[in-house]
Amino acid sequence: MALELDPITQAHLDRGVEGLVDEFRGIFSRETIDRYVTESIETLPAARFQDFVPVLVHRFSRQRLRALAQAEGKIAKDVPEVLFVCVHNSGRSQMAAALLHQRAAGLVHVRSAGSDPAEQINPNVVTAMNELGVDVSQEFPKPLTNEVVRAADAVITMGCGDACPIYPGKLYEDWELQDPEGQDLETARKIRDQIDERIAGLLRKLVPAETAGSR
Q1: Helix axis angle, 53-71 relative to 30-43, nearest 10°?
Q2: In a domain, 196, yes or no
Q3: I need a labelling partner for 215 at 20 to 30 A (CA). Which of 8, 15, 59, 143 fits?
Q4: Active site residue 149
C-alpha cells in the first residue's frame, strides 16, 4: 500500500528527487529516478516513521541508483564493493558493515541489506558498537535489492538462506553467527567480536597487503 504523505513531507521529498536528478544527469532519466524513489517509499520499513521519510528515502534511493550505475558500468568502482546480508539488517550485517568501513579506511566500500528488514537498528547493537567508538545510530534497515548484489564484488551472508541471488565472478561467504535479535547486550558484544575477527580475514582477501601498507 502506498504511504500517504503530508504536503510538507512531500515537498521535502520532491526536493530530494531534484537533487538525484542533478546528480545522475546523463546516467538515469527522471522517470527511472522517480520509480526508484517510489519503490523506496513503499519498501523501506523505516519510511513508516513520517519524520524521517525524506532523509531515509533519499539515502536509500541514492544507494540503489549508484549500485545500479555500477552494475551497468555507468559509474566506475574505485575500490571493491562489499555487501553484507542478514535477515533483519538490524544487527549482524549492520555491525559487519560498520566494522569493515572503519577497519578498511577507504580501501573498500560497504553496503548492507536484509531479506526481511526490521524497522530500526537493534538498540543493543548500537550500544555494543558505541563501545568501540563506532556510531550506527543513524543507520537504518534496508531491504535486499537486486542491483546492490549485482554491484558487489563480495557478498557475505549471515543466516538469510537462499534470499540472495547468485551471480558469477563474485566472492561469496556465509558466516554462521547468532542473531542478536531478542538477546542481551553481552550476547551482542560477543557477536560483534566474532564479526570483527572475520572482518580482518575478509579485508586481507579483498585488499593486497602492499595496497593496505601504502595507506
Answers
A1: 120
A2: yes
A3: 59
A4: no
Q: Distance (Å, rounded) from C-alpha 194 to C-alpha 188?
A: 10
Residue 16 lies in a domain: yes
- What is the domain range of residue 37? 9-71
User: Catalytic annotation on 164?
Assistant: yes
Please indicate whether residue 86 is annotated as part of the active site. yes
Q: Which of the residues 13, 56, 69, 86 is marked catalytic?
A: 86
Confidence of residue 207 (pLDDT cuts 50, 70, 90): confident
Q: Which of 41, 160, 177, 206 is catalytic?
A: 160
Residues 104, 175, single domain; the answer is: yes
Query: Which of 84, 45, 81, 113 lies closest to 175, judged by CA?
Result: 84
Any domain includes 4:
no
Both 43 and 97 in one domain: the answer is no
Model pLDDT for residues 47-94, shown as the tens digit of each residue: 666 566 788 899 999 999 999 999 999 999 999 999 999 999 999 999
Q: What is the dihedral of CA 127, 132, 134, 137, to 10 degrees?
A: 0
Q: For 82-108, b where at least 16 C-beta lie within 10 A, e where not — what string?
A: bbbbbbbbbbbbbbbbbbbbeebeebb
φ/ψ (deg, to 5) at 154: -135, 135
Judgement on whether residues 128 and 171 belong to the same structural domain of the protein: yes
Structurally, the chain folds into a number of domains equal to 2
- Assigned C-alpha cell, 72: 551497468
Distance between CA atoms of 38 and 61, rounded to whole angstroms? 9
- Catalytic residue of the set 164, 177, 191, 199: 164
Asked which of 71, 92, 116 is the last residue of a domain, the reply is: 71
